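Co-fold these.
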Amino acid sequence: MQQHEIGFLIFPNLTQLDFTGPLQVLSRLPGARTHIAAKSLQPVPTDCGLSLLPNRTLDDCPQFDLLCIPGGFGVVDLINDQATLDFVRRQAAGAKYITSVCVGAFVLGAAGLLRGKRATTHWAYTELLPLVGATHEKARVVRDGDVITAGGVTSGIDFGLVLVSEIAGRQAAETVQLGIEYDPDPPFDAGHPDRAPAPVRASLEERYAKSVQAYRNALVPLAA
Amino acid sequence: MQQHEIGFLIFPNLTQLDFTGPLQVLSRLPGARTHIAAKSLQPVPTDCGLSLLPNRTLDDCPQFDLLCIPGGFGVVDLINDQATLDFVRRQAAGAKYITSVCVGAFVLGAAGLLRGKRATTHWAYTELLPLVGATHEKARVVRDGDVITAGGVTSGIDFGLVLVSEIAGRQAAETVQLGIEYDPDPPFDAGHPDRAPAPVRASLEERYAKSVQAYRNALVPLAA
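Predicted complex below.
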C-alpha cells in the first residue's frame, strides 16, 4: 500500500479541534503515517486545558506529502517566527498538499504561500486574507491548486474527508465517515455567520476584536 | 458566574475525537472548568499516534457536575477494571449529568449506570446495549433522566452543544457553535449506517467484528 506522510504543525495555544478533527480523519486514510511536529518534544498547551504531545521536532521530520497547519489564538505568535516559517516553506516546497484549518491560513500566508491564491479561514478573520495576498472565497473548504484551506475549527472534519476522497477515492472517504459516524445534527442553525442570530454574531465579533487587531498589526508589515 | 466542573475520563487507546470534540465544545460553556482524569499523569496514547496529557488522577478530582466517558477500542480493557469503575460510580453518584460518547457507554454500563435506561453508542455496537441492561434508542444523542449518551465519535460535538444549551441556554450554545463554525458540510452522505453504501458498511462491520466480539465476551459475564 502506498504510504502517505501526513504532517501537522502544533504550537502553544492552538485550538485543539482545528488539529484533532483532521487528525482523526486523516489518520484513517489508508497508508497514512501521521507526524505531529512542534519546536520541541515538550507538551504543547491548547486552548482547552489539554496538552498534546508532539512526536517530531521541526528539524526531525520526513518530507510530508500533506502539510496541515491548524489555527488558534497562538497563530499570531508564529507570524514573525522565522524557524516556524522556514519549516513551513521547506515542507511546502516538497508537499503535494499545502493545507490549513481556521487561522492556520495566516501561517501559510506569512510564509508567502497564499500569494495570488483563493483561500478561506475562520469567518471572523476572512477580511485579513488580502494582507497575505490571498482572495477570500466563501466556502467551507477552498482548493486552489495544491493549496487547500478550510474555515473555522470544525470545518477541518469536512476538509479531512475531502482530502481522503482526493487521495484514496470516494469509498475510502465514505468508510472513514461511517467509522466516525459523521452524520452531523447540530441542535441549532447558528454555525455560519450569515445565519447565526445577530446578537450571537455580535457578541463573538466583540470577543474576537482584540485578536483580529493583533493579527492585523502583525500582518500589515508583511503586506508592505 | 456559576462554575461547572466538567470531567472527562481518558485511558489508553481511546478514540481521540470522542473526547476532543466534546472537550472543545464544553470548555467554552460559560463557567466551565475542565478536568481530564486518568489513572496517572503519564501521557495517554490514543488511536491516532497522538498522546494526551491528563491533568488529574482518578483520586485527585473534585466532584464533577458533568462526567463524560469517551470511547475507543481501549474501552474493552476498562469493563473489568475495578479502579476505573469505582471512580465512575463515585463521580456518577454526585454528578448532575452522567454521559458518554461512542462505546464509552459500556464503561457506564459496566459500572451499572445504564440499567433500565434508554441509551445509544457507536452504531456497530448498539446490539450490545442490552448486555448492560439498556435499551437502544435510535438517535444521535439520547437522554434518559440524568444519563445522556451519544453515538459514534463525531456525535460528541452535537452532544456537547445539546449540553451547553441545557446548562446555559440556547444563546450560549449558538455562540459556541458559531465560534467553532459548526456548519457541517460532509462531502458524502455516508455517516449513518442506514444510508451508507452497503459495501462501505459491510467493510466496517468486518473490520469491527473482532472488537464487537471482544466487548461481547467481556460484557456477557456482567449480564449474567
